[in-house]
Specification:
The chain is an all-alpha fold and about 220 residues long. It contains 10 helices and 2 strands; from the N terminus they run H-H-H-H-H-H-H-H-E-E-H-H. It has a two-stranded antiparallel ribbon with strand order 1-2. Strand 1 (about 180) and strand 2 form a beta hairpin. The chain is globular, with a radius of gyration of 21 Å.
Length: about 220
């Protein structure tokens, strides 16, 4: 994720929140959103008002970041098409190109490496290195490999945790499979954290009338 982090902050939403919370609650909510936008997994305090507002705002942040990542991917694809055509080759369709990019991401969690790789190689020729080729390039530390949606689904089914596998994959894919500023090392642990957070959100959802009231405030 870029160093210059941001998240959407609509004046209408925050004005409604300002009228509904104390200054201390507002600052706590703001810092929670900052941490969430940075890829962390902050846990709201026991204040039900902060928890309810945070659930609404964090969902918007996740959707906005995913939409931004989709725009970034389309820009990268357009850049790839331009470079490929300049080299006198016919570019791949978007879905084929995206599949090749996914293969590259399995070798590196650095998205910039994917861009550099596409500049110098025809994506159709990108293949995983054989063991012998890896040895020739020297010993390398094992790198994190992003899980497929099916792998996450099987793990969630095994734990019977009710986590949405597609939402989990989409969320961390939009962040370049990073937790905060650090590359993810264990996606199963991230699923367990997601599971724990979802379970805690479920307990907080006990005051349904309050959630509905807050949702109504944001729609004013």
């Amino acid at each position: 994720m870029a160093d210059n982090l941001y998240f959407p902050a609509y004046f209408s939403d925050w004005n409604a929140i300002r009228d509904a919370v104390t200054p201390e609650q507002g600052w706590t909510l703001f810092t929670l959103c900052l941490d969430y936008a940075a890829g962390e997994n902050p846990q709201p305090c026991g204040d039900p008002v902060i928890t309810a507002f945070y659930k609404l705002l964090s969902g918007g942040i996740a959707r906005s970041q995913l939409a931004q990542e989709e725009k970034n991917q389309k820009r990268r694809y357009a850049r790839y098409c331009g470079i490929t055509k300049e080299a006198g080759r016919e570019p791949l369709r978007f879905d084929e190109w995206a599949t090749q990019v996914d293969k590259c991401q399995q070798m590196s969690t650095d998205v910039d490496d994917v861009d550099n790789h596409n500049r110098n190689h025809n994506p159709i020729e990108i293949q995983s290195e054989s063991k012998s080729e890896s040895k020739e390039r020297g010993d390398k530390r094992l790198r994190f490999s992003p899980p497929s949606t099916k792998e996450v689904e099987l793990y969630c089914r095994e734990r019977n945790n009710g986590v949405d596998p597609q939402a989990f994959v989409d969320f961390y894919a939009s962040k370049g499979w990073k937790v905060g500023r650090e590359p993810m090392k264990d996606w199963q642990a991230a699923v367990r954290t997601w599971e724990r957070r979802q379970r805690e959100d479920g307990r907080d959802r006990g005051d349904g009338d309050q959630d509905q009231e807050i949702t109504g405030i944001l729609r004013l």
